[in-house]
Design goal:
single chain; 7 strands; globular
Length: 91
């Protein structure tokens, strides 16, 4: 998924939704991001998860063409997300 796709798909969602990543059957909070070449990598951790507003603010100056990856054992491409309660779960 590219950053532009994520922005379009999340444009009408509640800004207070919390960002999680699905990994090995668990939901880990996304706590940080970093750039690696032409990719935006989302990092899971044990801290408070980023909200949709926070993630969009972090990425507002970045190129729309960046691909989104999740840091698991190695960076893994993101293909979509689902909404569960107050969570956006990226998979």
């Amino acid at each position: 998924m590219q950053l532009s796709d994520f922005r379009i798909m999340s444009s009408d969602l509640r800004p207070d939704l919390l960002i999680y990543v699905e990994y090995l059957g668990k939901q880990l909070p996304v706590v940080d991001t970093f750039l690696n070449k032409n990719t935006l990598v989302l990092l899971g951790g044990d801290k408070e998860p980023l909200s949709l507003t926070s993630l969009l603010n972090i990425t507002k100056e970045l190129s729309e063409s960046l691909s989104i990856f999740v840091k698991k054992d190695s960076p893994t491409r993101v293909y979509g997300f689902k909404i569960e309660g107050n969570k956006i779960i990226i998979n």
